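Q: Hi! First time asking for a complex rather than a single chain. Here are the components, and I think there are two in total. Is that enough to go on?
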Amino acid sequence: MNFLVKSAVTLLTAGAVLNGAPALAQDYPTRDITFVVPYNPGGATDPISRQFSSQLEKVLHVGVNVENKPGGSGTIGAGQIMRSKPDGYTIGLSDIGALAYQPLINKGLVYKNSDDYQPIVKLSEQPVVLVVRADARWKNFDEFVAEVKSSPGKIRVGVNGLRTAPDLVIQQFNKVAGTRIVTVPFSGGGGEATIAVLGGRIEAMANSGAGNIGHVKAGTLRALAVFTKGKYEPFPDASPVGDAGYNATMGSAFYVIGPKGMPPAVLTKLSNAALQVAQSEEFRAFAKANVYVAEPKGPSEMKADIDQFSQIYTELLKFIDQR
Amino acid sequence: MTTLDGILHGLHVVFTYQNLLAALAGALAGTVIGVLPGLGPVAGIAMILPITYSLDATAGIIMMAGIFYGAMYGGSTTAVLINMPGESASVMTCIDGYKLTRKGRAGAVLTIVAVGSFIGGTISVAGVMLFAPVLGQFGILFGPAEFFALTAGGLMILSRISGGTLAAGLFPMALGLVLSTVGQEAVTGQNRFTFGFNDLSQGIELVALVVGLYGLAEIMLVIESLHTQVKPLNVRLRDMMPTRTEWRRSWAPFGRGTMLGFIFGLLPGPAATLSSFASYRLEKAVSKHRDEIGDGAIEGVAGPETANNAAATASMVPLLALGIPFNAITALMLAALMVHGVQPGPLLISAHPDIFWGVIVSMYVGNLMLLVLNIPLIGVWVSMLRIPNYIFLPLILMLAVIGSYSVRNSMMDVYIFLLVGVLGYILRKLEFQLAPMVIGLVLGPLIEKHMREGLFMSLGEVSVFYSSPIAITIWVLVLLILTIGIQRALIERLFGVRLGKIVLDNNE
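A: Yes, that's all I need. Here is the structure of the assembled complex.
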């Protein structure tokens, strides 16, 4: 039955498009906005998108409809956003991997860097946490690093896919600390790596905090380190890698983007509304409940952020290729 | 909290208007989603996910679980009636279910399916309730090496799942394996065989393939024989109920299906689909009437349909006990939990007894609702066969196209549906079996993924695949099953007895 509702909605929207005379940019928005999520519902991207769009609805007073467009590590959805008409009625979520990392390894994309799309707002960052089994022999991160150094190429850290944010930050650690931690990519999401750690098949796993906080609280897993500078509130016992003198503090991050070439009036209204949502108490509470770090940033700050990531990734890729 | 306290608490939670309504709405929506070809539980749950955000966490999960097992009830309806699986866990049901429909037994088959689903579902709930914390650990025993043995060994065993000659099974299976390599490779994310189509990087969608292979091909076959074929037999009320023989022959498959489904549900992967394959294969191996399976035997329907319901229910164990989703559907439930600020993990059962016991009791209630709903509906479904073909076939075609599109909002999947439909038609004309192709597509990526993960993990040591006791046990079992014919011949030779005869005599 759902598809009937869906097609009815589609028809109605189509009708609205035909009826509306070309609206002036100042009047924006006059109809519903489509919000593209480049992953399946079930990942971390879907809940944050729905939270954001439901709040954006209240600020802009039009409907904001979420549409999942999964595939290609987030590049298919990103491509759909960037190819859409730059009228402010198609925007969507993206993540640092799709925006800064994928263009470096995938030349067939419609975008190369942050000049090819319109940054709108940065929503959050998710630090990477290193966890081990509760009964693991390392009491703290220093002991772990000592063993990594004494037996290079033997300590295995599970990650949720090759060259995902957790994998890349471990590689960054390898680079700055001169170590050889081996990453094992489990592609079935973070869960597979978790059961591999619990089953003692690998020594540790690196993941964003949300996936493991349940096990850490239950005492089945222990958080040794977090790849940040400064404490990460949800994991008070994890030692911050940045404070230990290693410059390996990349997490993953969520952004809202649109196609480039929007009328300035539309962009201003949209990005102000988006920033207002990202800074709101309600959104911060949502971020906290999901173990995200809220990081509201407007378009120009966000662009600088992505460019910095691109720079780090480029250097990191050179390092990985040399190995 | 003891189990009894838990059940009482669960009853208390479930018997509120909101939660009962959530269970009913979920079960109903699930049945509809299951019946509509192409619309599977994943797409269905994804669509209602936003609705569950506005309910509380318990009601949301109750509703989603209802859709999952409701879809397992409904999915077999079109498989039995028109040889078009409503979702991928009902592929095996097509083979014998449709043949029985042609013999006029549609009503009886659907009744057996509903009762089998009820048995598989409720016994499985009891298992979840009593052993969830312990069984949660079962999944941890399985790593890449064990899964490689299970999937690669499974592929060998399942190659001749639907009978026919060896070539009739192996060729479509190879085709399925080849198709499964299309798209973004699971470990490193490299695109393979996408020929510049970005949409193909998601791979060949299982739903589009299944609906095309069976549904579109079947529509073409029906059109071809429009002038020669007589109308489906009129089903009388008496034919709605299974005969005593049919009941008697179904009990053992119900039991075996429940056990198989429950075990598969505890393991990562598309449990409902895999368990229905395994159950069909098991029935073919051990059933008294194994020679009839494939030509319209009730065992070939009763086993798989019981198994997929048991699996759907049991796959709640890893989610509730470990906070780890083992398939796409429980991943969606996890997302719903997290939106409500419920942190999944080993503490869920003690920290949120409302959710755990509420969901358990709701699954009893929901299964009962489904049984009560479905038995009267069987008459309605069967009477659909009386709709004139010039209305019925375009309607089915339209639903199938929408279903293929809706899974990923992708036109590419509609084109795949059309292409595969033509392919399925040709294969059927050449008397190839279709089920092995689906199995190839399902298992191919899993085998590759687990092998590569295993090698990553062992730092390239091949020995990882035969150094765990579980993996060795699985491989030995696979070898034993594969060489059953040789073993029988050997024993007959050595001891001079006719084993086949003895087995046959026991049957009479």
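A: The two ends of chain A are 54 Å apart (CA to CA). Let me know if you'd like any chain examined more closely.
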